[in-house]
Amino acid sequence: MKRLPAVAVCLVVLLCAALAPAADEVVVGSITPLSGKLAVYGEGFQQAMLLALDEVNAAEGINGKPMRIHYEDNNSTAKDSVSAIQKLITVNKLPVIFGPAASSNFLAVCPIAQENKTILIGAESAAADITKCGDYVFRLFPSDELQGKGAAELAVSLGYKEVVLTYINNDWGVGLGRVFKDNFVKAGGKIIDEFSHDEGKTDYRTEILRIKKHSPRAAVNLTYIKEGATMLKQSYETGLKTQWLMGSASKSPKLVELAGEAAEGVIGTYPTFSQETPQYKHFKEVWAKKYPEKKVPVFGEYNYDMVHITAKALRASKSYTSQDIRAALIEAAKGYMGVTGDKTFDENGDVGAVYGKWTVKAGIITDYRP
Amino acid sequence: MDYLYHILVIALIYVIFASSLNLELGYAGLYNFGHVAFFAIGAYTSALLSLAGFSPAASMAIAVLCSAASGALLAVPALRLSGDYFGIATLAFGELARLFALNERWLTKGPMGLPGIPRPLGIEAGISGIPVYFFFTVTITAAVLLILRKTTMSPFGRALKVVREDEFVARAFGKNVFSLKVRAVAMGSLFAGLAGALYAHFVTYISPYDFSLNETILVLLCVVLGGKGTLSGPVLGAFVIILFQELLRFLPIPTDWGRFVSPIQGMIYGAVLVILMLKRPEGIIPEHRT
Amino acid sequence: MSGYYLQLMTNGIIAGAVYALFAVGLTLVYGVFRFINFAHGELIAWGAYLTLAFSALIPFGAAIFPAVALTVLIALTQERYVYAPLRKKTGITLLIASIGLSYFLRNGLRLLWGSDLQSFGFEAARGLVFFGITVSRTQIAMFLAAVIFLGFVWGLLRFTMLGKGLRAAADSLELAEIVGIDMKKIRRAVWIISAVFAASGGILIAIDTNLEPMMGIANLLKAFAAVLLGGAGNVWGALLGGLFIGIAENLGVAFFSPGYKDAISFALIIAILLFKPTGIFAIMKGMR
Fold first, then answer.
1. What pLDDT is recorded for position C269?
2. How many CB atoms lie within 10 A of CB B82?
3. Which terminus of chain C, N or C, has less C-beta within 10 A?
4. Which of B99, B220, B228 is nearest residue C263 as measured by Cβ atoms?
5. pLDDT digits (tens, 9 = 90+) for A28-50
6. Could you tell me the residue range of the domain that residue A95 belongs to?
7. A82 and A170 co-located in one domain
8. Strand, helix or coil at B14?
9. Residue C64, domain extent
């Protein structure tokens, strides 16, 4: 009890320090999963953002003032995302905030941003529902609506009329599964069996058996890296012979590293962008220079583009109010060719995308060519 | 200072949640490891009703009664189990409740969660409503603590402590031990449901991830850290834990250390818990035993 | 079609054996000290990660031994500095302390190895087929390890002086102390067995799937359910409890959505506890 006053003093000092008017600089907020179950990804997002930030500041920042990103951890949960955005809006009074990863966390904060006319930009949230968030919410990552269509087209184009559908039981998997099903059935396909599988299990043999029971020619598995690798490995052991069709979230060298032989021949969709553009080559080069020992993380390119577009909008904006920045942002993105392609926003603040096909050949992820 | 109000509301919700667990754990000696289930029942019932068009205040009232009823329904069979078995049965119940919310998509929208939950009494959504919501929560918390104070100082409350210390003695004094415990659980669930409903209408978004075993552990820590079996213990515990977590946001840590910060925070959190149990196992405010 | 159910059954038995492997350490700790060791999952993960670290230096088969030995050392350090000083305290105090240790150890793993997925890098192999039922080599290894280890512990409890002391301590810690059983030795033995089981279980799970800091926790809840189903402190009970849960949830997937796979085992736990509040296999008390 005796220490309470001391703690209180520390609290006040820290609060004051945080509230002290910052030196002449332009600050943008970011809610990033630095702890919790998404921490695996958060670190990579942050590095990609910092890379772009270095470039912005090397090029005179925002009209001479340096740009800074203020990070808030959200512990990978919706509750802490809400706390974080409240802090960014009311304590730091920032008009632009980069939203959290995981669609459920993004959906939790988007009404708050909209309500307060604060610009919220997402670089990795895919849920179709985000489209409806409002006119202050933008994202540079294509909606699941598009990927679901892409996956259905993939199955149809490969000549599969009947598939078993399984998806990871979380916001991403369930949402994407629904869109896939709608589009696949519309295209005349048939879903023989459909079920979700739990996140983070070590044993999926029974789920695999359920697929095997139908002996389908193809099985659509919309899942993450860890679950995907375990399922591929265990179905290989079980002797399941089917064509696996997967989504974008399992497209990672890690999947191949973990599943080895079992990942051979998997085909999947992913939102693609040309790797031949000067933008992409430039990104690769600067990434390798700043982080020589690290591979480009998942969604890294999107985070990089996000910072650059925001900087462009801030430079062009008439004032540092969200209304003006919003108008400048829409203008800045129009025809903007980033690392991840054309980032023009549609009327819902979404971007379009081209879907590519990936496959695993001789232990390497490459583009699928029939 | 809306952010401060925001933290305070969250802390107050945990004060109610922790106090409700304290009634079961601290007073009645019941290890309820599935307490989050009633928080979830309160949150989901209130959210679904108000999204279906009921007035939020009425939804909250119905939700609170629903959690109390489900608490009593669980307690009647589960209380036949002793000590740790009661704990594991409630833990299983808590996980079942979460899995239900995750899988019954027709009702709960599953992992997508429920956005846009309206606030009661015409309090505005978004930040402009936070100060009002704060006073609303303060009033409710004060009422809850008053009721708990009255209850624990009543013969009922004292009888609970006797049951906790020695069931046979309680029986010898002619107490109906079973009925006492069922009432304790029902009341605990009632207030947990209230905390859940307050949470849902405050954050305005809920999903099954908000109701995992981690929440039970967090609230258990609030109770034990503050001091179980006392009225003020869980209050202090909830404030210390919630503020401690938020305070970490203000530490000036260079962004480049990112990869190490969160593991080190976790290690410190763990170490503090261990040291606290070694040095002050009775919590910050130890129970005054007479 | 019966082949389908037989295969489900087989998968259930093997999954159950893994739960049992994790459950033994828990059940011994619970039986003797009467508290739920939340940090057991971290011993599982540390066993696997240490093997990964050593296998970079020496062949995999040899790396297991120093890894298990170090895991035992971690467990003994916990005992020395946390659990032993708390031995007179209530179960809830010990539980919270173990939650603290679990945070500490898990974040220690993240600090040293990062949060990313890792693997031992074994190639996936086709399973072996017996009478139309497919099992992988890892599955066989897991099942054998469970049976052999359990048999070993059972023999230890049944036929040695240490085992007698353990059983006495499980019945009543105070009485055992009064009759002059060396409690220090007993406590140490419990932690050593617990850590060896956790580490080897972790290594097997990591061979089967992969390594990540949360790997220990994934199966812990069910391992603990197995403990209670089998009756605390009962080694064969832990095996039976594990098998029961494994078979029930795997057969259940044939009828329910796999989203409810965990729910099946939790619902069963509640049902069984209500009918037989002391654990279904507590009848076999003589086995302890």
1. 77
2. 11
3. N
4. B99
5. 999 988 777 777 778 788 889 99
6. 21-141+277-354
7. no
8. helix
9. 2-287
Question: What's the rounded Cα separation, in Å, for the pair B272 and A152?
Answer: 51
More confident residue, B57 or A11: B57
Mean pLDDT across C25-37: 84
Q: Indicate the angle between helix axes C2-33 and C40-55, nearest 10 degrees.
A: 110
Cα torsion C211, A38, B222, B59: sign = negative
Instruction: Please indicate whether, in this complex, the C-beta atoms of C260 and B278 are within 8 angstroms of each other.
Output: no
Query: What are the phi and psi torsion angles at A272 (to 5°)?
Result: -115, 165
Instruction: Provide the token pair at A165.
Output: 């559908």
Looking at the DSSP assignment, which residues form a beta bridge with residue A364? A361
- The count of C-alpha atoms lying within 13 angstroms of the C-alpha of A296, restricted to the half-sphere facing its C-beta, is 18
Q: What pLDDT, on the 0 to 100 scale, is given for residue B173?
A: 78
* Local structure of B12: helix, strand or coil: helix
Pair A198, A229 in one domain: yes
Q: Are C229 and C243 in contact (CB under 8 A)?
A: no
Distance CA A123, CA C23 (A): 43
CA distances from B80 to B87, B196, C200, C276 (A): 12, 27, 37, 10
Q: Could you state, in order of their start, the residue ranges of all structural domains in chain B? A: 2-212
Residue C246 belongs to a domain with what CATH number?
Answer: 1.10.3470
Q: Clarify whether residues A293 and A253 are in a common domain.
A: no
Question: Which of A104, A143, A168 is most worth mutating to test chain B (most B CB atoms within 10 A of its CB)?
Answer: A104
Q: Which residue of A has its CA nearest to B10?
A: A83
Tell me how far apart the alpha carbons of residues A32 and A216 are, in angstroms, rounded to a whole number.
40
Classify the phi-psi angles of B122: left when phi > 0, otherwise alpha if psi is within -120 to 50, otherwise beta: left
To the nearest whole angstrom, how far is the Cα of A324 from the nearest Cα of chain B? 21
Nearest 5°: the CA angle A87, A91, A93 is 100
Nearest CA of chain C to the CA of A236: how many Å? Answer: 6
Q: Chain B: nearest CA to C37, how far in angstroms?
A: 13
Q: Using the beta-carbon criterion (under 8 Å), do C103 and B96 form an inter-chain contact? A: no
Q: Which residue of C has its CA nearest to A235?
A: C126
Nearest to A258 among C18, C117, C126 (CB): C117
What total of structural domains would you count in chain A? 2
pLDDT of residue C15: 87
Tokens of residue A193, six digits: 């069996």
Chains interfacing with A (3 or more CB pairs < 8 Å): B, C
Chain B residue numbers with beta carbons less than 8 Å from the beta carbon of C92 are 25, 31, 224, 228
**Of the residues A236, A265, A294, which one is the last residue of a structural domain?**
A265
**b/e for C54-78, b at 16 or more Cβ within 10 A?**
bbeeeeeeebbeebbebbbebbeeb
Smallest CA–CA distance from A225 into chain C, residue? C117
Residue of B9, B124, B249 to mutate, interface with A, max A Cβ within 10 Å: B249
Residue from C280, C245, C241 nearest C24 by CA: C241
Closest to A254 (Cβ–Cβ): which among C117, C136, C214? C117
DSSP structure class, residue A366? E
Look at A79 and B250 and tell me if their CB atoms are within 8 Å. Answer: no
For residue C212, what pLDDT band results from cuts at 50, 70 and 90? confident
Mutate to test the interface with B, among A83, A144, A196 (most CBs of B within 10 A): A83
Instruction: Provide the β-strand partners of residue A32.
Output: A73
Q: What is the DSSP letter of A291?
A: -
Contact criterion met (CB < 8 Å) for B250 and A89: no
Amino acid (one-letter) located at A33: P
Q: Is B203 within 8 Å of B213 (Cβ atoms)?
A: no
The reported pLDDT for the residue numbered C279 is 59
Q: Do A183 and A219 fall within a single domain?
A: yes
Q: Which CATH number is A44's domain given?
A: 3.40.50.2300
Distance CA B226, CA B242 (A): 12
For residue C110, the chain B residue with the least C-alpha distance is B263
Contact B127/A104, CB-based, under 8 Å? Answer: no
Q: Which residues of chain C have a CB within 8 Å of the CB of B234? A: none
